[in-house]
Every structure is written in C-alpha cells, then in structure tokens.
Design brief:
alpha+beta; Jelly Rolls; 7-stranded antiparallel β-sheet; 3-stranded antiparallel β-sheet; 8 helices; 12 strands; 19% strand; globular
C-alpha cells in the first residue's frame, strides 16, 4: 500500500508526534526544506560517495548495488539547517527529551540494480523498549530525489517497533514465516526533495528493488536519548574551526570528538544480514 507522509505542520505538538512514533513508528514533514536546499545536499552526497568508493573501507555494502557511508557533520553543508529546524527539534525533544544527542550522520545510496532487502530493524531493541516500552533513539531521513515506485522506495511495517525479535539473529531479522505479517502492513514511502521523515529504527522495514536507471540517495541523521548507546558505534568528529562557527544549541546536542583535522571514516557499522536476501539463518 502506498502512503505519503501524514504529519503536517499543524501536528508539531508533542501529543501528535508521540502518537505517530509510538503508533506507526514513522512520521514526516513534507516540504520542510526548499528544493534548492535538497539539491545542494545531493551535490554533497554525490561528492562524498565518489570519495568513499575510491577509498578502501569508505563505503559499506548493504546488499547488491546498495551502500551506506558515514560522514562528519561539517562535510554536509545543510547540517546546521537540519539540527536547528523547528520540526527536527520538536520531534527530538518530544520523544527523546531535552538532552537528546545527535550521534550519526551518513547516507544510503540504493543504486540501479539494488534488490529487495530482507525485513529488518537497524539494531536490537534495547531494554528501554522491550521492558520500559520507551523509544530512546530516532532516525531522520532526508531524500535527495523525488522518489518514484521504480526507484526502490523505503517500505515500512507500521507498529512493529514493539515486536519481540530477541529469539532471532542479532535481534534484528525476523524469520521468513513472519514476512506475511510485514507484507500485510507494508507501506511504501514516496518522499520528495525537501521532505523530512522521523522513525524508530526498530520499526521493521526494508529497501525495495531499484528498477530505475538512477540512484535514490538519502541522508540519515541518528539521534539518541541520554540513556541510549548508539554513539558507541560512531565517531563524529568536529574540527576546532567548524566548532567555533556552530550555534551553541547545536554543539550542546552533538556527540563529537574535537580534532584539528578530520580523519577519514573507515566504515565499521556492518550489518551482514543485509547481504542476504532473506536475512541470516537461525544458525547465524
């Protein structure tokens, strides 16, 4: 079933945000940025992707013709615009609390020939969710293109952020016998340039096959509550010169290492199960 983002500007209040993320597990704001802004983001992604692919360890495969690249904030010209956008701030504060932390900046590039991913979540559910019934992290997506059906849209199964996958590989990959549950709930998202979405990375989802002749780049920003531990898997660096230009309200919500010069990011957040069409076997 196709479905576009539904949370419009009138839904910026905490109750609407919480209903969306604790209910479906995904919300969005159409037209958050203008198309020129999105075009500049695309330019940055294209340049960073070419650099990453030319450097050993620079781009992680996430399936055939599908890659993920983590980058440092200052290499994306629109980072401050994202971190200070009122909707971004409102969503972070509503779900993660006033002391939320930006811990990850990167991008996905599903190119022509990318195949359906297995249904999965991005990491195992923490105790805050399995026992406390609380979301303590969010992923924000910023599309660099007007997504079409042929480009392999993101597909999500609403409400599945609460599914117990603890018995399955890495707590991330449900077995094939559960696929009909996700297929029955599946919604394909068709965002346009300038849209923002926010989701729980625990909501079961997948990238679908890209049958077009063009790639579908998406910028990703990961944000944690104070008790989440996703920052341990990332190493955001900020140069002293760039830090001096950042608004205080950005720096205080950013988990980073201060450096004189940026170090190249050797990608380390491998998800081997995404390299298999049906996910890892129970023996994995």
């Amino acid at each position: 079933m196709k479905q576009s983002f539904e949370l419009e500007a009138s839904g910026w209040d905490t109750a609407a945000i919480m209903r969306g993320l604790y209910g479906d597990g995904i919300i969005g704001l159409p037209g958050a940025f203008d198309r020129n802004w999105a075009a500049r983001m695309r330019e940055d992604i294209d340049a960073l992707f070419a650099e990453a692919k030319a450097t050993p360890g620079g781009a992680l495969p996430r399936g055939p013709e599908r890659f993920y690249v983590e980058v440092h904030p200052e290499r994306v010209r629109g980072f401050v615009d994202i971190a200070t956008h009122p909707w971004f701030v409102a969503v972070c504060r509503a779900v993660l609390g006033p002391d939320y932390r930006i811990v990850e900046v990167g991008f996905d590039v599903p190119g022509p020939g990318a195949q359906d991913q297995p249904w999965h979540r991005d990491f195992a559910a923490p105790e805050a969710t399995t026992k406390g019934r609380r979301l303590n992290s969010l992923a924000f997506n910023f599309t660099a293109v007007d997504t079409t059906e042929e480009m392999g849209p993101f597909e999500v199964a609403p409400g599945t952020q609460w599914d117990d996958l603890s018995a399955y590989p890495n707590g991330m990959f449900p077995p094939r016998e559960l696929f009909p549950r996700y297929q029955a709930r599946a919604q394909r998202k068709l965002p346009r340039m300038g849209d923002i979405s926010a989701r729980s990375a625990l909501t079961i989802h997948r990238g679908t096959a890209n049958r077009s002749a063009v790639s579908r780049p998406v910028l990703v920003v990961g944000v944690d509550a104070p008790d989440a531990t996703n920052a341990h898997h990332h190493d955001l660096q900020v140069t002293r010169g760039y830090a001096a230009t950042l608004p205080a309200e950005v720096l205080e919500h950013l988990t980073y290492r201060l450096v004189d010069e940026l170090e190249f990011v050797v990608q380390a957040h491998t998800i081997d199960g995404l390299l298999q069409a049906d996910g890892p076997s129970m023996a994995a």
